[in-house]
Amino acid sequence: MSSTSSTISSIRVSGSRERIAGLGNILRRNPLLLIGLIVVIAWVLGALAAPLLAPFQPLQQNVAERLQPPGSPNHLWGTDELGRDIYSRVLYGGRITIPASLLVIVFGSVIGSVVGAVAGYLGGFYDELLMRLTELFMAFPTIILAMAVSSALGPSIQNAILALVVVWWPSYARMMRGLVIKAKTNDYVEAAQCLGASRFYLLWKTIVPNCLSPMLVMTTLDVGNAVLTFAGLSFLGLGPEPASPEWGRMVAVGIDYFDQWWMWLYPGAAIAFLVIAFNFIGDGLRDILDPRMR
Amino acid sequence: MSLAQYALRRILLIIPLLIGITFVSFLIANAIPADPINTNLPPSQLNNEAIVAAFRAEWGLDKPPIEQYFTYLGNLLQGNLGRSIKTRQPVAEDIAKFLPATIELATVATVFGIFIGVGLGIVSAVWRNRPIDFIARAVAVIGVSVPVFVLALLFLSVFHAQLGIAAGPGRLTVTLRDPPTVTGLFTVDSLLAGRPDLFLDAASHLILPGLVLALYIAGLISRVTRSSMLEILSMDYMRTARSKGVRESIVVMKHGLRNAMLPIVTVIGLSYGNLLAGAVLTESIFAWPGIGRYMFRASTSQDFPAIMGVSLLIAFIYVVVNFVVDILYYFLDPRIRLS
Question: Which chain B residues are within 8 Å of A32, Cβ to Cβ?
Answer without folding.
Answer: 137-138, 141
